[in-house]
Amino acid sequence: MSAVSPTIQFFDGIFEELDGVSLRRDRSTGARIIIMTFRQLKSIEQFNSFRNRFSKAMKLQDEEGEILVEPSSIKFFFGGDEGDELDHVDCRFEIDHDDHWERFRRFMDRYAEANGLAYGER
User: What does DSSP assign to residue 82?
Assistant: First the structure.
């Protein structure tokens, strides 16, 4: 396959920039929990959500193809003097199959390499 730059989209054609990822595990179910953090969403800032088709899932795309993820929650956090400035958005979803986990990890490795992100412990 040819090299394709990894991308993340909530709306078709609007490419978002990921600022951080938190990987956790639910101790009771064993499911892997992923929280992707975005400091800004281009689709919201430019009101493009009204002009582009919502994909009904977050689309992660790389040289292996597409991964469609239906978030279990999306939380908007606000700050600023008036409390009305978007600070960041957390998008949460779970992965409970090992092969899906491995595919997600390959995507994240490619995305991190293409966008200058590094792995770190908190």
Answer: S
Q: What's the pLDDT at 85?
A: 87
Domain count, the chain: 1
User: What are the tokens at 106?
Assistant: 């390959």
CB 11 within 8 A of CB 57: no
Question: Which segments of 1-122 does DSSP mark as H helices, in order?
Answer: 42-45, 98-115
56: nearest Cα among 68, 47, 67: 68
In tens, the pLDDT along 25-80 reads 999 999 999 999 999 988 777 654 555 555 568 999 999 999 999 999 989 899 98
Q: Which of 46, 49, 21, 45 is nearest to 35 (CA)?
A: 21
In a domain, 13, yes or no: yes
Q: How far apart are CA 94 and CA 112, in angstroms?
A: 20
Q: Can you tell me whether residue 108 is helix, strand or coil? A: helix
Q: How far apart are CA 63 and CA 4, in angstroms?
A: 5
What pTM does this model have?
A: 0.81
With respect to residue 103, please indicate whether it lies within any of the assigned structural domains: yes
Domain assignment present for 14: yes
